[in-house]
Amino acid sequence: VQLVESGGGSVQAGGSLRLSCAASGLTYSSNCMGWFRQAPGKEREGVAAIYTGGGSTYYADSVKGRFTISQDNAKNTVYLQMNSLKPVDTAMYYCAATVVAGDPLVSYEYNYWGQGTQVTVS
Q: How far is residue 56's CA from residue 71's CA, in Å, rounded to a whole number?
């Protein structure tokens, strides 16, 4: 299983970024895909998740109304559209996958992880 993130970068507060996670080696159509982030000195936290089969989505309260998770099943890719970015959103962002998650925003529910992409908001 391979998860490859892209789309990170540096942006000013109020700006937008779109992260992508390309998945291979798993049954993409029946998985839970999540986005997590970890800032220096802080624990990894769940940001958003989506069940690729039914399309159900989940968001952390801190990003509701600003971030949107979506998928392109034809490309086996999950996206995280991040709008109205704030300096507190600065972190390494990771894509993760599992078959089923009791709580889709909890990191230990996930079996597979990408290498991460850095997002810096100033």
A: 11
Is the distance from CB of 32 to CB of 98 less than 8 angstroms?
Answer: yes
Q: Are strands 9-11 and 117-121 parallel, antiparallel or unpaired?
A: parallel
With tokens 């998860």, the residue in question is: 3
Per-residue b/e over 17-41, b at no fewer than 16 CB within 10 Å?
Answer: bebbbbbeebebeebbbbbbbeeee
Residues 33-79 have pLDDT tens digits of 999 999 999 999 999 999 988 889 999 999 999 999 999 988 999 99
Q: Do the Cβ atoms of 113 and 3 come closer than 8 Å?
A: yes
* Cα–chain center distance at 20: 8
Compute the distance between CA of residue 96 and CA of residue 92 in angstroms, rounded to an integer.
13
Query: How far apart are the two ends of the chain, measured CA to CA in Å?
Result: 34
